[in-house]
Amino acid sequence: MSDHTEHDLLRELFPETARELFGDAHIPRETLGLYPVADGRLALISGAQLAEFTPIDPKGNKALHCDLCHYTRSRSEAALYRVVVGARRSRYLTLCIATESCQQRAGKEGVRGLAERIFPIESPYVE
Question: Is the pTM of this model over 0.90?
Answer without folding.
Answer: no
